[in-house]
Amino acid sequence: MVRRRRPVAFARSGKLVAVRLGDEERDLMANLAAQFRSLLSEDADPDQRRLYPSAYPDDPERDADYTALIHDDLLRSRLEAADVVTATVGNETLEPDELEQWMVVLNSLRLVLGTRLDISEADEFDPEALDVAERSLLLWLGLLLEEAVEASVRFLR
To answer: Rounded to two decimals, what is the model's pTM?
Structure first.
């Protein structure tokens, strides 16, 4: 059996980034961006802990001050990124700044999903696991993020 490599999801195309996602992948990304936006409105959700890590784990007072200082800005930037993904998910190309917003959402989704699955760097993929669909989604998001970063880096060269 010969496996075909799927086309790269993001590739530089002149001054833009070509988006090579199929309709199902675009629908999934739109759905994930909407779910992410909804999750962000639930401030007390423990799955968000990796989105807002502690800056001072040994000093609760300083950590609370730090959180008060940056939380709203981080939240606003993530909500804006989710809006950009939703608005551009059907586009054939992205501006570099739009791709950056996609990377914010992709990385944030990976952090939330990894937290939910309690995944560490040492975990290996198990195709027989009960949560194989979620773990596969995590891998797919990682692949998209890697390709988005690679396309983005090419603008710096």
So the answer is: 0.87
